[in-house]
Amino acid sequence: MNRQDPKKLIPKDQIRGIGRLFAWACATMCLTPLILVFAVSTTQVWQRGPWAGGFTLKYLVQGWNTISPYAWFSIKLAFLVLILNFIIGIPTSWVLARHRFPLRNFLFSLTNVPIAVPGIAMGLALIITYPLLRRNGFLLVAGHLLYTLPYFISSLTPQLSESSVQDVEWVAATLGANFPRRLIYVIYPKIRTSLLAATIMVVTLSMGEFNVSFFLFNPQNKPLPVELYSAYITGRIEVAAAITLCFLCFVVPAAILLERLGGAKVGNA
Amino acid sequence: MEQELWKRIRIALLSLIFPVLLGGFLFWPLLSLGLESISGDEGALSLALYKEVLLSKHYLSSFWNTFLLSLLSTLIALVVCIPAGIYIEGDEGKDRKLLAVALTIPLSLPGIVIGFFVIITFGFTGVVPKLFEILTGTRRLAFAYTFYGMLLGYVYFQIPRVVLTIRGAVSNISQDVLDSARTLGASTLQTYWYVILPTLKPSIISAASLSMATGFGAFGTAATLSRGYRVVPLEIATAFTENFQPKLAGAMSIILVLITTLMLFGINKLVDLDKRSRGEGVR
């Protein structure tokens, strides 16, 4: 310990400095590949170096033509999963946030269980138990729903249980507003932000889901990441990068918006 | 009285929706997968498959590889992300918002895309080996398809998980305590060791268990990068799709699920018990 001269060592500033350095190192690691994907996908011949043979958009056009049917399928799937999240997640969050009942803690732990099960095991269990439901895409929806619900519920529950929201609602109730009116005019405006965050979270997670889908997709209806994977295994690096870039255009803006809305949830299992 | 009864019925119905879904699409399938994997040829109980997995050198080394990758990636992510999380949640610095966004992006990227990132950076035609060639004349550092490439991919997807968990707990570190440490003359290392790490301990443990479990279950990154370095999720996929051994795949999945569940719930239970025994409540 250096008791004589506290000014000589300034741990708080050093902690900040180290933190800043490490944060920038992480950020560089996270963002550089995004720039590289852009460079690879717009280069004529990547083998010879960045933009060798000139800048081109042909791989992007080619990539988009390859994946657009799968992209639409993934978007449709994500919206179906989102609707089911609303139907199942909102009542569950509501009960968790507003009521004290026996086994409440148990239900709370249950909502985190799907996070603990690796996607590949979930997919395998579903396909072996319900092989007949694979063809109509039902299993894919079920898998994505299970995979996204924990995040949906854990983003929605905290705001629903905030005492300020409950107080305002109570005031509205004593003034004679019935439940549907309270829902539309009081509760919805209060939880709008976390509902939006939960929505974005579900859509991006479902669009990027690969592990659960790997066993569950049927060859006519491949989700986007499954098609991405086959491009990585078989295709030219430029085309693979172009397809990745198309995919990133869906996902990265959503991730940025999500962080601005108050942050993603990683599931507090 | 009647109103109270209706309320109870309503709560019961609403709280049953999720468990029913979970039962039908997770617990029952996992249970039947488990039953399938322990039933022998004539329907008799048999643990032969588990013996096959746990006694074969091949599968044991896959488990070891998975463990090693998860552990190392978790440790690296913790070392880098704890200081980063503290900075981002701090009270000074204009770049904090930007950094927060940058470090959350990997969360929405599937493992296969992360694997591809490693390929375009450190693959045979990756940027770094090329730069190395321009600078020194020989192509080096093309390690994308080795253990180190996979480790890099794993660290990439651990970063947002650790950062977000740590950020949630940083507000527990009071600025006054940091100031006191400073006036008492504690060095940076001492402040970390005696003030910051003990305060963050519960969230470090949950970040570590979350990222260990994620590492064990990671499939996409391994599927794009592995050329011979086997991990358990890859073995499951190969057993089911290439070797047509659904029961073997089932046995390995059950072991994997047990490991990840124990990691996530077991470790957090231990933290709770530890807290309770030391009389610390919810902060």
Using the alpha-carbon principal axes, give the shape of chain A.
globular
Number of structural units classed as domains of chain B: 2
CA-based gyration radius of chain B: 24 Å
For the terminal residues of chain A, how far apart are their CA atoms? 40 Å
End-to-end Cα distance of chain B, whole Å, is: 38 Å
Tally the helices of chain A. Answer: 11
User: Could you state the CATH homologous superfamily of the largest domain in chain B?
Assistant: MetI-like
Structural class of chain A: mainly alpha
Q: How many strand segments of chain A?
A: 0
What global shape of chain B is seen?
A: globular
Q: Which SSEs are present, and which pair or pack?
A:
The complex is a heterodimer of chains A (269) and B (283).
Chain A: H1 11-41, H2 58-98, H3 104-110, H4 113-116, H5 119-129, H6 138-160, H7 163-174, H8 179-208, H9 213-216, H10 224-234, H11 237-260
Chain B: H1 2-38, H2 48-55, H3 57-88, H4 96-104, H5 111-122, H6 127-136, H7 147-170, H8 175-183, H9 188-217, H10 220-225, H11 232-241, H12 246-277
Overview of this structure, please?
The complex is a heterodimer of chains A (269) and B (283). With 269 residues, chain A is mostly helical. Chain A has one domain (68-260): Orthogonal Bundle (MetI-like fold), CATH 1.10.3720. Helix content of chain A is 74%, strand content 0%. Chain A contains 11 helices and no strands. In chain A, helix 1 (11-41) packs across helix 11 and helix 7 (163-174) packs antiparallel against helix 8. The two termini of chain A are 40 Å apart. Mean pLDDT of chain A is 85; it is low at 1-9. Chain B has 283 residues and is mostly helical. Chain B folds into 2 domains: 1-46, no CATH class; 55-112 and 147-277, MetI-like (MetI-like fold), CATH 1.10.3720.10. Chain B contains 12 helices and no strands. Chain B has helices at residues 2-38, 48-55, 57-88, 96-104, 111-122, 127-136, 147-170, 175-183, 188-217, 220-225, 232-241, 246-277. In chain B, helix 3 (57-88) packs across helix 7, helix 3 crosses helix 9 and helix 5 (111-122) crosses helix 7 (147-170). The model of chain B has no long low-confidence stretch (mean pLDDT 86). At the A-B interface, helix 1, helix 2, helix 3, helix 4 and helix 5 of A face helix 1, helix 3, helix 4, helix 5 and helix 7 of B.
